[in-house]
Amino acid sequence: MASIKQRAGWCAIAVTMVGGFEGLRLAAYADPVGIPTICFGETKGVRLGQRATPAQCQAMLADSLAIANRAVDACIRAPLGDYRRAALVSFAYNVGQENLCGSTLARKMNAGDALGACNEFPRWNRAKGIVLPGLTRRRATEQAMCLGALP
Questions:
Q1: What percent of the chain has pLDDT over 90?
Q2: What is the CATH architecture assignment of 4-22+58-148?
Q3: What is the pTM of this model?
Q4: Which of 24, 41, 132, 134 is deepest in the core (most CB within 10 A)?
């Protein structure tokens, strides 16, 4: 179990990273592939025309990051430093636990191939089969954070 100080490290990185890539939108909008989205990339139960306050968005972000962190805990058995965990939490926030757990990235990380795992991030730059520049940038940042954490 990580200490509060340890959790604060990766969490601060993940909040900044996810918030930066997702951006804050108080009114629901259709994302690049048509999925109704609000706040910091929230999609569950969102409908166009919906509005949220900044405080509601912050609460959603905190809840979703906690879910993403639990996904990382469920899928990754390898030890993770703050930057690698933040990269994986950002990834899980975006693709979900099922995709993380079933990925070659997770398989390689759990096999002790951190370099190979980190090099899997760029493969996840599509939504509904469409390459998205924003996802390409996000995956490059996640990859760099993961690689920077290599011994």
A1: 81
A2: Orthogonal Bundle (1.10)
A3: 0.89
A4: 41
